[in-house]
Amino acid sequence: MRRPAILASLSLCLCTLCTFAQASPAVSSDPRALALAQKSLVALTGGIPLVDVTLSGRVISILGSEREAGTGTFRARTAAESRIDIRLSKNTRSDVRNVSNGIPTGRWAKNAGPSSPYAQHNCWTDAVWFFPGLSSLTQTANPNFIFSYVGQEQHGGIPVQHIHVFRMVPGDTAGLRTSQHLSGMDFYLDVSSYLPLAISFQLHADNNMNTNLSTEIRFANYRPKNGFMVPLHFQQIVNGGVVLDATVTNVVANSGLLDSLFTLQ
Q1: Residues contacting residue 17 through CB under 8 Å, at least 6 positions apart
Q2: Are the C-beta atoms of 172 and 142 separated by less than 8 Å?
Q3: Of 26, 73, 190, 214, which is the most buried if we count CB atoms within 10 A?
Q4: What is the pLDDT of residue 21?
Q5: What is the total count of domains within the chain?
Q6: What are the backbone dihedrals phi and psi of residue 73, each rounded to the nearest 5 degrees, phi first?
């Protein structure tokens, strides 16, 4: 998915709005949603502390009529930092998410060229969208994350427990509308195993935070690896179409990933 450079005026406005000071939530989390998130995290990690993970494997990138196969490496450290490196037959791409001066940020680069910033309004959803064990499911003790229970339903023909999570965006005075609009994450947990089968959220046009790009990550083929449950297959779907299909062939956890990995020049 292409992410052109953000408009300078929009970036300045959002950075002014989104100082990452501790917020005082006007609402509290639903105990049912917290309990489900905690059960899901235990199912994913077995209660073992997880600091970082590296997934590598085969990928297929689909952008319009262009379909390229290659390899991908997906790295994450805690819930705040991620790096994705995709090497295709004709192109390469790197994406980094991190926190700078307390504000979530991101950058991307293509074909070893200079990097460009993400639109800041696209940095409030989970940095680690590709690995649920380091998603916002880990934030049940953080008062700036609000968990709500949506209910039991069908998702993709499978019974799931649906919970919604959003992060308080500091400076949001519009009745939490900005927070939910920019940071909302929906988790669909298998009713028996509590493993996430899908995560959905909204991305937005780089130059218009009110233009939604409906995004869903679907997980399959969970297997125990290094003591953790890892989805060995996941897809990124944008506006109903698959844009990335990944098959994981190698998993490394708690390897001590370096700070330098999570920066792009």
Answers
A1: 169, 170, 171, 172, 178
A2: no
A3: 190
A4: 38
A5: 1
A6: -125, 125
Integer-rounded Cα radius of gyration of the chain: 18
In one letter, which amino acid is 87?
R
- Establish if 129 belongs to a structural domain: yes
Is the per-residue pLDDT at 7 higher than 60? no
Contacts of 224 (CB under 8 A, 6+ apart): 230
Backbone dihedral angles phi then psi of residue 68, each to the nearest 5 degrees: -125, 140
DSSP-derived 3-state class of residue 62: strand
How far apart are alpha carbons 199 and 139 in whole angstroms? 16
> Tell me, what amino acid is at 150?
V
Which positions ≥6 away from 15 have C-beta within 8 Å? 103, 120
Domain hosting 195: range is: 8-262
Is residue 32 pLDDT above 80, yes or no? Answer: yes
Residue-wise pLDDT for 151-203, tens only, equals 999 999 999 999 999 998 877 766 688 888 899 999 999 999 999 999 999 99
Place of tokens 């490496």: 73
What is the identity of the amino acid at 228? F
In a domain, 130, yes or no: yes
Is 108 part of any domain?
yes
User: pLDDT tens, 100-127?
Assistant: 887 899 999 999 899 999 999 999 999 9
SS3 90: coil
What is the pTM (predicted TM-score) of this model?
0.88
Tell me whether residue 2 is in a domain: no
C-alpha triplet 77, 253, 161: angle, nearest 5°: 75
